[in-house]
Amino acid sequence: MAPMAMATTKKAMVVLILSALLPLSTLGTRSVPTAVPHHGHACHGTPKHSSPPQLTTAELVRTTCNSTAYYDLCVSALGADPSSATADVRGLSTIAVSAAGANASGGAATAAALANGTATSSKAQAAPATAAAALLRTCAAKYGQARDALAAAGDSIAQQDYDFASVHVSAAAEYPHVCKALFRRLRSAQYPPELAVREEALRQLCSVALDIIALASNGSG
Asked: Angle at which helices 162-185 and 193-217 pack, to 10 degrees?
Protein backbone atom coordinates (compact mmCIF):
# COMPACT_ATOMS: atom_id res chain seq x y z
CA MET A 1 0.00 0.00 0.00
CA ALA A 2 1.28 3.45 -0.95
CA PRO A 3 2.19 5.91 1.80
CA MET A 4 -0.46 8.37 0.66
CA ALA A 5 -3.16 5.69 0.75
CA MET A 6 -2.08 4.64 4.24
CA ALA A 7 -2.29 8.26 5.45
CA THR A 8 -5.75 8.59 3.98
CA THR A 9 -6.84 5.37 5.66
CA LYS A 10 -5.52 6.58 9.06
CA LYS A 11 -7.36 9.89 8.71
CA ALA A 12 -10.56 8.03 7.89
CA MET A 13 -10.14 5.84 10.98
CA VAL A 14 -9.57 8.90 13.19
CA VAL A 15 -12.72 10.53 11.83
CA LEU A 16 -14.72 7.36 12.52
CA ILE A 17 -13.40 7.13 16.06
CA LEU A 18 -14.16 10.81 16.75
CA SER A 19 -17.62 10.36 15.26
CA ALA A 20 -18.23 7.41 17.58
CA LEU A 21 -16.99 9.27 20.66
CA LEU A 22 -18.82 12.52 19.95
CA PRO A 23 -22.30 11.41 21.20
CA LEU A 24 -20.82 10.07 24.43
CA SER A 25 -18.95 13.30 25.00
CA THR A 26 -22.05 15.31 24.28
CA LEU A 27 -24.08 13.25 26.73
CA GLY A 28 -21.41 13.66 29.36
CA THR A 29 -21.52 17.42 29.08
CA ARG A 30 -25.32 17.41 29.29
CA SER A 31 -25.28 15.46 32.55
CA VAL A 32 -23.35 18.18 34.36
CA PRO A 33 -26.16 20.78 34.64
CA THR A 34 -28.54 18.22 36.19
CA ALA A 35 -26.06 17.55 38.98
CA VAL A 36 -25.45 21.21 39.82
CA PRO A 37 -28.92 22.01 41.23
CA HIS A 38 -28.78 18.81 43.31
CA HIS A 39 -25.48 19.73 44.94
CA GLY A 40 -26.59 23.33 45.32
CA HIS A 41 -29.78 22.22 47.16
CA ALA A 42 -27.80 19.97 49.47
CA CYS A 43 -25.68 22.92 50.54
CA HIS A 44 -28.61 24.73 52.17
CA GLY A 45 -28.30 24.52 55.94
CA THR A 46 -31.85 25.63 56.81
CA PRO A 47 -34.52 22.91 57.29
CA LYS A 48 -37.29 22.63 54.76
CA HIS A 49 -40.04 22.83 57.43
CA SER A 50 -39.65 25.07 60.46
CA SER A 51 -41.33 24.17 63.75
CA PRO A 52 -44.62 25.97 64.51
CA PRO A 53 -44.43 28.90 66.94
CA GLN A 54 -45.35 28.20 70.55
CA LEU A 55 -48.73 29.51 71.72
CA THR A 56 -48.85 31.96 74.59
CA THR A 57 -50.77 30.97 77.71
CA ALA A 58 -53.80 33.09 76.80
CA GLU A 59 -53.77 31.73 73.25
CA LEU A 60 -53.55 28.14 74.50
CA VAL A 61 -56.52 28.68 76.82
CA ARG A 62 -58.58 30.26 74.03
CA THR A 63 -57.62 27.60 71.52
CA THR A 64 -58.39 24.85 74.01
CA CYS A 65 -61.73 26.35 75.02
CA ASN A 66 -62.69 26.75 71.36
CA SER A 67 -62.75 22.96 71.24
CA THR A 68 -65.33 22.76 74.04
CA ALA A 69 -69.10 23.18 73.99
CA TYR A 70 -69.04 26.00 76.56
CA TYR A 71 -66.35 28.49 75.61
CA ASP A 72 -67.13 31.25 78.13
CA LEU A 73 -67.46 28.84 81.02
CA CYS A 74 -64.23 27.15 79.98
CA VAL A 75 -62.25 30.40 79.83
CA SER A 76 -63.68 31.49 83.17
CA ALA A 77 -62.96 28.18 84.91
CA LEU A 78 -59.42 27.88 83.58
CA GLY A 79 -58.59 31.54 84.12
CA ALA A 80 -59.69 31.37 87.76
CA ASP A 81 -56.82 28.97 88.51
CA PRO A 82 -53.39 30.69 88.60
CA SER A 83 -51.68 27.45 87.53
CA SER A 84 -53.24 27.85 84.08
CA ALA A 85 -50.52 30.44 83.39
CA THR A 86 -47.93 27.66 83.02
CA ALA A 87 -50.14 24.70 82.12
CA ASP A 88 -50.14 22.65 78.93
CA VAL A 89 -53.30 20.97 77.64
CA ARG A 90 -52.96 18.11 80.10
CA GLY A 91 -52.61 20.65 82.91
CA LEU A 92 -55.67 22.49 81.65
CA SER A 93 -57.66 19.26 81.74
CA THR A 94 -56.65 18.84 85.39
CA ILE A 95 -57.81 22.37 86.15
CA ALA A 96 -61.15 21.74 84.44
CA VAL A 97 -61.66 18.57 86.45
CA SER A 98 -60.80 20.43 89.66
CA ALA A 99 -63.34 23.14 88.83
CA ALA A 100 -66.01 20.49 88.34
CA GLY A 101 -64.95 18.86 91.61
CA ALA A 102 -65.35 22.17 93.47
CA ASN A 103 -68.86 22.49 92.08
CA ALA A 104 -69.73 18.94 93.17
CA SER A 105 -68.35 19.63 96.63
CA GLY A 106 -70.51 22.77 96.83
CA GLY A 107 -73.50 20.74 95.69
CA ALA A 108 -72.97 18.26 98.49
CA ALA A 109 -72.76 21.07 101.04
CA THR A 110 -75.87 22.76 99.64
CA ALA A 111 -77.90 19.56 99.73
CA ALA A 112 -76.75 18.81 103.28
CA ALA A 113 -77.69 22.30 104.44
CA LEU A 114 -81.11 22.01 102.81
CA ALA A 115 -81.62 18.61 104.42
CA ASN A 116 -80.78 19.96 107.87
CA GLY A 117 -83.10 22.92 107.40
CA THR A 118 -85.93 20.72 106.15
CA ALA A 119 -85.44 18.23 108.97
CA THR A 120 -85.65 21.00 111.55
CA SER A 121 -88.84 22.44 110.11
CA SER A 122 -90.41 19.02 109.49
CA LYS A 123 -90.87 18.40 113.21
CA ALA A 124 -93.95 20.57 113.09
CA GLN A 125 -95.00 19.47 109.60
CA ALA A 126 -96.35 16.41 107.91
CA ALA A 127 -94.48 13.35 106.64
CA PRO A 128 -93.73 14.79 103.15
CA ALA A 129 -91.24 17.22 104.65
CA THR A 130 -89.46 14.36 106.38
CA ALA A 131 -89.35 12.47 103.08
CA ALA A 132 -87.90 15.55 101.37
CA ALA A 133 -85.20 15.79 104.03
CA ALA A 134 -84.29 12.16 103.38
CA LEU A 135 -84.06 12.83 99.65
CA LEU A 136 -81.82 15.82 100.25
CA ARG A 137 -79.46 13.69 102.29
CA THR A 138 -79.38 11.28 99.37
CA CYS A 139 -78.62 14.23 97.08
CA ALA A 140 -75.74 15.25 99.33
CA ALA A 141 -74.36 11.73 99.09
CA LYS A 142 -74.68 11.74 95.28
CA TYR A 143 -72.84 15.03 94.96
CA GLY A 144 -70.20 13.59 97.26
CA GLN A 145 -69.83 10.64 94.91
CA ALA A 146 -69.48 13.04 92.01
CA ARG A 147 -66.73 14.89 93.90
CA ASP A 148 -64.91 11.61 94.57
CA ALA A 149 -65.23 10.53 90.93
CA LEU A 150 -63.70 13.82 89.79
CA ALA A 151 -60.83 13.40 92.24
CA ALA A 152 -60.23 9.95 90.72
CA ALA A 153 -60.32 11.55 87.25
CA GLY A 154 -57.57 13.94 88.31
CA ASP A 155 -55.44 11.01 89.45
CA SER A 156 -56.00 9.26 86.12
CA ILE A 157 -54.94 12.38 84.20
CA ALA A 158 -51.76 12.55 86.27
CA GLN A 159 -51.01 9.01 85.08
CA GLN A 160 -52.02 9.96 81.52
CA ASP A 161 -54.79 7.36 81.68
CA TYR A 162 -57.26 9.48 79.76
CA ASP A 163 -59.78 6.73 79.13
CA PHE A 164 -60.35 6.14 82.85
CA ALA A 165 -60.36 9.89 83.43
CA SER A 166 -63.21 10.25 80.95
CA VAL A 167 -65.14 7.41 82.58
CA HIS A 168 -64.86 9.08 86.00
CA VAL A 169 -65.93 12.49 84.68
CA SER A 170 -68.89 10.99 82.83
CA ALA A 171 -69.98 9.22 86.02
CA ALA A 172 -69.66 12.44 88.01
CA ALA A 173 -72.01 14.21 85.61
CA GLU A 174 -74.64 11.50 86.07
CA TYR A 175 -74.81 11.38 89.89
CA PRO A 176 -76.89 14.59 90.28
CA HIS A 177 -79.47 13.20 87.86
CA VAL A 178 -80.35 10.60 90.49
CA CYS A 179 -81.20 13.38 92.90
CA LYS A 180 -83.54 15.08 90.43
CA ALA A 181 -85.15 11.76 89.46
CA LEU A 182 -85.92 10.99 93.12
CA PHE A 183 -87.62 14.35 93.58
CA ARG A 184 -89.72 13.74 90.48
CA ARG A 185 -90.94 10.50 92.02
CA LEU A 186 -91.77 12.29 95.27
CA ARG A 187 -94.43 14.56 93.86
CA SER A 188 -95.13 16.17 97.19
CA ALA A 189 -91.75 17.92 97.23
CA GLN A 190 -90.23 20.35 94.75
CA TYR A 191 -86.73 19.89 93.40
CA PRO A 192 -84.75 22.70 95.10
CA PRO A 193 -83.72 25.41 92.61
CA GLU A 194 -80.35 25.67 94.35
CA LEU A 195 -79.62 22.07 93.37
CA ALA A 196 -81.02 22.58 89.88
CA VAL A 197 -78.43 25.33 89.34
CA ARG A 198 -75.66 23.14 90.77
CA GLU A 199 -76.69 20.22 88.56
CA GLU A 200 -76.63 22.24 85.35
CA ALA A 201 -73.31 23.88 86.22
CA LEU A 202 -71.75 20.50 87.01
CA ARG A 203 -73.05 19.05 83.76
CA GLN A 204 -71.45 21.85 81.76
CA LEU A 205 -68.17 21.74 83.68
CA CYS A 206 -67.95 17.99 83.15
CA SER A 207 -68.59 18.54 79.44
CA VAL A 208 -65.72 21.03 79.30
CA ALA A 209 -63.46 18.64 81.19
CA LEU A 210 -64.28 15.77 78.83
CA ASP A 211 -63.53 17.89 75.77
CA ILE A 212 -60.14 18.98 77.13
CA ILE A 213 -59.28 15.43 78.21
CA ALA A 214 -59.96 14.36 74.63
CA LEU A 215 -57.51 17.00 73.38
CA ALA A 216 -54.86 15.81 75.83
CA SER A 217 -55.50 12.21 74.81
CA ASN A 218 -54.95 13.13 71.14
CA GLY A 219 -51.54 14.57 71.96
CA SER A 220 -52.40 18.26 71.79
CA GLY A 221 -50.59 18.89 75.06
From this structure: 160
